[in-house]
């Protein structure tokens, strides 16, 4: 699992105001921090717009008046937090209220999935988000839907929304920069996440979608091993690590230009965005249905060190960026590769491609200067079989 440690040298400074509500605005009421935290920690859903925060029947939070949080105390006094200015404490209560109500709702996997598929078709028809014809997209989405529902029957899952609520409350109250909701069987998430988050992990759930707006300071997003079909259309501008492998994603949105690591392997991608973040040093898109990668897309990634495009439908090998060190391209449909290879290349794994003997000179040149390694076993065997390399020469590679 990628973490903040992987990107700390690149991390921008986070203004203190993003982690602490800061100085209270003049004339605005604030609860004492200890009392506020106690109420938030004990807050439970009773009914629409009504929550309890203790065992006494008088300990009630009333949200029925727009823009106000009314907190009823044991002595029958009422503390009102207003939305004006804005009020960070008001926002915290509204966020916890949303999560408390969400925690009481039933599993909505099928409804959520159907809603997301409809939105994808509508958006593609209006904005032409993909190269896939509308009818083909509709057919693909129906197939994905059937597979998802077949593999994720309610009887085989336990959804622990209560634990997710507890973790979110602790994150909000303690101002932790990391929230981990992984492996809880969640089928959905509330739209609002703690705004101070820097790392968010929600892997190994059954999520069909993420919140449309992610925290603006987010640096690490790990949503692996879910059933996501799309990522949020707007990415946090400071995002540096995106792990979304092992989902059902059909296309990627416009990506944050600040990204350093992208792992979108094991999805249903047929193409990559025409332009990728220029600071990328690791890109993995293995195990998709990608049929082509434009040369200019990779050539512009001058800082890319690791590239894995194995197990796709690529027919021609792309031209590689100048500083690439590790390159996995096995299990495609390559008959040849681009030469010259980058001088920096140390690992070249191209096993499982249908090499063409008409391209022998190019293939021989592609492996010159590389040390013998398992990833070249198939290609070296092919070259030896076709008589272009003697056995002793193979041993020197």
Write up this protein.
This is Type III effector protein (Leucine-rich repeat protein). It comes from Escherichia coli. InterPro entries: LRR-bact_E3_ubiq_ligases, LRR_dom_sf. Belongs to the LRR-containing bacterial E3 ligase family. The chain has 397 residues and is of the alpha/beta class. It has three domains: 29-104, no CATH class; 108-254, Ribonuclease Inhibitor (Leucine-rich repeat, LRR (right-handed beta-alpha superhelix), Alpha-Beta Horseshoe); 271-397, Leucine-rich repeat, LRR (right-handed beta-alpha superhelix) (Alpha-Beta Horseshoe). It has nine helices and 14 strands. The strands form two sheets. Strands 6-7-8-9-10-11-12-13-14 form a nine-stranded parallel beta sheet. A five-stranded antiparallel beta sheet has the order 1-2-3-4-5, covered by helices on one side. Strand 3 and strand 4 form a beta hairpin. Helix 2 packs antiparallel against helix 5 (161-174) and helix 3 (109-127) packs antiparallel against helix 4 (134-151). The protein starts with 32 loop residues before the first helix and ends with a helix. Residues 5-27 have low confidence and may be disordered.
Low-confidence stretches: 5-27
Q: Count the strands?
A: 14
Spatial sequence of strands, sheet with the most strands: 6-7-8-9-10-11-12-13-14
* Number of separate helices: 9
Name given to the CATH homologous superfamily of the largest domain: Ribonuclease Inhibitor
Return the CATH architecture of the largest domain: Alpha-Beta Horseshoe
Distance between the termini: 34 Å
From N to C, what is the helix and strand string?
HEEEEEHHHHEEEEEEHEEEHHH
Radius of gyration: 26 Å
User: What is the residue-averaged pLDDT?
Assistant: 84
**How many discrete structural domains?**
3
Class per helix and strand makeup: alpha/beta
CATH class of the largest domain: Alpha Beta
Share of residues in strands: 5-15%
- Indicate the percent of residues in helices: 25-40%
Shape: elongated
CATH topology of the largest domain: Leucine-rich repeat, LRR (right-handed beta-alpha superhelix)
The profile of the biggest β sheet is: 9 strands, parallel
Subcellular location: Secreted
Protein name: Type III effector protein (Leucine-rich repeat protein)
Keywords: Leucine-rich repeat, Repeat
Main location: secreted
């Amino acid at each position: 699992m990628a973490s903040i440690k992987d990107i700390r040298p690149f991390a921008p400074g986070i203004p203190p105001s993003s982690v602490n509500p800061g100085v209270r605005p003049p004339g605005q009421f604030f609860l004492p921090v200890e009392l506020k935290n106690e109420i938030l920690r004990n807050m439970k859903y009773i009914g629409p717009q009504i929550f309890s925060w203790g065992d006494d029947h008088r300990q009630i939070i009333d949200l029925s008046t727009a823009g106000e949080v009314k907190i009823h105390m044991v002595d029958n006094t009422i503390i009102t937090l207003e939305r004006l200015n804005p009020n960070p404490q008001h926002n915290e209560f509204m966020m916890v209220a949303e999560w408390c109500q969400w925690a009481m709702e039933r599993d909505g996997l099928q409804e959520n999935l159907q809603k997301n598929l409809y939105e994808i078709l509508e958006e593609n028809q209006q904005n032409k988000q993909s190269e896939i014809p509308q009818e083909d997209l509709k057919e693909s989405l129906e197939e994905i839907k059937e597979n998802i529902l077949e593999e994720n029957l309610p009887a085989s899952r336990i959804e622990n929304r209560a634990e997710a609520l507890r973790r979110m409350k602790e994150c909000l109250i303690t101002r932790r920069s990391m929230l981990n909701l992984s492996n809880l069987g969640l089928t959905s998430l509330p739209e609002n996440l703690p705004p101070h988050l820097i790392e968010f992990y929600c892997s190994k759930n059954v999520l069909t979608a993420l919140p449309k707006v992610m925290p603006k300071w987010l640096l690490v997003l790990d949503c692996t091993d879910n059933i996501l079909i799309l990522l949020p259309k707007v990415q946090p501008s400071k995002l540096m690590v995106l792990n979304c492998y092992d989902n059902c994603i059909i296309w990627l949105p416009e990506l944050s230009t600040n990204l350093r690591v992208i792992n979108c392997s094991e999805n249903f991608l047929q193409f990559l965005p025409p332009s990728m973040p220029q600071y990328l040093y690791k890109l993995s898109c293995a195990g998709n249905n990608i049929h082509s990668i434009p040369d200019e897309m990779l050539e512009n990634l001058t800082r890319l060190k690791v590239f894995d495009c194995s197990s796709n439908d690529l027919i021609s090998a792309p031209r590689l960026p100048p500083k690439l060190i590790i390159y996995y391209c096995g299990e495609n449909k390559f008959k040849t590769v681009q030469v010259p290879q980058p001088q920096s290349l140390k690992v070249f794994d191209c096993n499982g491609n249908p090499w063409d003997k008409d391209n022998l000179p190019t293939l021989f040149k592609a492996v010159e200067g590389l040390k013998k390694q398992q990833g070249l076993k198939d290609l070296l065997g092919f070259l030896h079989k076709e008589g272009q390399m003697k056995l002793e020469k193979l041993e020197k590679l």
